[in-house]
Amino acid sequence: MKTSADPVRDYLFAVEREASALPADRRQELLADLAEHIDVTRAERPDAAIGTVLAELGDPRTIAATALAEAGSTVTGAPVASAPGAPARHGKVHPLVPLLMLTLPFLLATALPDAPAVQFCSTLFRVVGAVLLCTSVHWTAVQKTTGVLLTAVLPTVAISIWMWAGAAPAGDGPALLANVATLALLACTTAWLWRVRRA
Predict the structure, then answer these.
(1) What is d(CA 40, CA 58) in angstroms, rounded to the nearest whole number?
(2) Contact (Cβ atoms closer than 8 angstroms) between residue 199 and residue 97
(3) What are the φ/ψ torsions at residue 120 (nearest 5 degrees)?
(4) Looking at beta carbons, which pairs linking 45-51 to residues 24 or more positions away fall under 8 Å?
(5) What residues have CB less than 8 Å from 11, skipping those under 6 apart?
(6) Which pLDDT tens digit goes with each residue over 135-178?
(7) Could you tell me if 89 and 137 are in contact, meaning their C-beta atoms sit under 8 angstroms apart?
(8) What are the b/e assignments for 166-183, b being 16+ CB within 10 Å?
(9) pTM for the whole thing?
(10) Which of 5, 37, 81, 88 would suit a FRET pair with 63, their CA atoms being 20 to 30 Å apart?
């Protein structure tokens, strides 16, 4: 019997073939999710044989059947039970953790602006939150990028320009307005991320 040189490619091809009834965008998302899961598992367990990793994911027919059932549930609105042996796409970290780590430290840093230790911890927590968001299985790559840009990069750049470039107008009013605007941006972005997360 002929042995494949690339078992991952063959596995994904088998899933794609079995899931041919799915719409093309859903099928590509399924394949991307599986490929990401395989990459993460191989990075976490470099000594594991690729056959073991693929066996843990389950049979391509079962995965395709589960995906087709889930696609049907989005049309009918009826919940569909997962097929046995389907890959569990559960992240190790609850999706609420990165969202809180990106939002709550801003409140603490705003409440205690003259405490360098608090500012350092706030920055550290936000960086860890961004990393957890980027490595989570609960969002797509576009959602992760948007979330990090709006909750970490944009506020940090705006605050840096505000503080160090001397662009801040005098008085407490403008600072309060800037903090409220930043908090609103963080709250809206984290609420959006929570709403679009994958179970």
Answers:
(1) 16
(2) no
(3) -65, -45
(4) 50/7, 50/8, 51/7
(5) 34, 54, 57, 60
(6) 888 888 898 899 888 888 888 787 777 666 655 555 566 667 77
(7) yes
(8) eeeeeeeeeeeebbeebe
(9) 0.49
(10) 5
Amino acid at 143: Q
pLDDT, tens digit, for every residue of 98-120? 888 888 888 787 777 777 888 78
Distance, in Å, from the CA atom of 8 to the CA atom of 172, rounded to the nearest integer, reads 58
* Nearby residues of 8 by Cβ (< 8 Å), 6 or more positions away: 35, 38, 50, 54
- Percent of the chain that is helix, strand, coil (3-state, to 5): 70, 0, 30
The residue length of the chain stands at: 199
- DSSP for 13-75, please give it: HHHHHHTTTS-HHHHHHHHHHHHHHHHHHHHH-TTS-HHHHHHHH--HHHHHHHHHHHHHHHH
What the block records as the tokens of 125 is 């927590």
The mean pLDDT of 31-39, rounded to a whole number, is: 89
Q: How far apart are CA 42 and CA 62, in angstroms?
A: 22
Distances (CA, A) of 45 to 53, 93, 186: 9, 18, 35
